[in-house]
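Re: your question about Zinc-binding dehydrogenase

S., sorry for the slow reply, the queue was backed up all week. Below is exactly what I fed in.
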Amino acid sequence: MTLRPETMNTVIARQPGGPEVLECVPRALPDAGPGEVLIRVAAAGVNRPDLMQRSGAPLPPDTTDVLGLEAAGTVIAVGNGVSDIAPGDRVMALLNGGGYAEYCIATAAHCLPVPANLPLEEAAGVPEAAFTVWHNLFELGRLQAGEYVLIHGAASGVGTFAIQCAHAAGARVIATAGGAHKVAALRTLGVWRAIDRHEEDFVDVIADCTQGRGVDVVLDNVGGAYVARNLAAMAPGGRHVSLSFMQGPKIELDLQTLMRKSLSLTSSTLRPKSSEEKARLAIAIRGQLLPWLATGDVRPLIHARLPLDQAAQAHRILEANQNIGKVLLTISTQ
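Result:
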């Protein structure tokens, strides 16, 4: 029987601010409630919503102050009503919070099994990307084999995962990133045309490489003035999906372009979704994306692994846009 400690190390923001406000604090080990599992964490993924939480952004009700929206590890206990996960199982979990810790609580229905070929630490880079990509690229964007997809900010954790999934689905991927080293990395992931946003205009490049047709789907995390340019680069019937708005949430649209091309604009954000909706997505991901992970066609690209007590440095990497792929916090107890 595995001995359970009474306390665990966690990372919180002691007050709203920069990375320097993050600190390790001890907390009591939680118990798994009905429908929940207790996970001994191998690693946690670091995501931009964590940076927003640290900075003081409003949180959903009853959210823990321990940061971390995804983790992977070994189940050590299950709550009442959990029948499809058992102690000893390797899982990767989408969380409402609490991943920056030696142990975390996850809703059992939001957990995914870790394929045998995927190291447990690396699996921590999957949940946020998998839930985001499946819902936005395939459900909202309705990406099909043979279509062209434009992915902005493609060197991010979600971007690198989206590239591989789109490629595995038979789509042609056009991706943008900043800098020659990032563009070179994208080419190794199956990108059909990689664009350095510092050197090239993506609207012109897309017009040239698609013979004026444009792209069928845009996955955009830039917002602002990019949206109008995205629409100019889209094919008739194209679908524009907004993930974020790093250049601002307010945009100006020419409705004539929208109507003439029969374009659609949609968006979503993962954290506020209901538990039931996340459980639905988990079922779809098990059937659609996990086989790609199991074959190695898709896997999380890991930029850096840092120990839990270096969470501040992990945040600095993301804030400086230095990463190509995911940044992970690893736990020494594994």
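The radius of gyration is 20 Å. The chain has a mean pLDDT of 94.

Happy to talk it through on Thursday.
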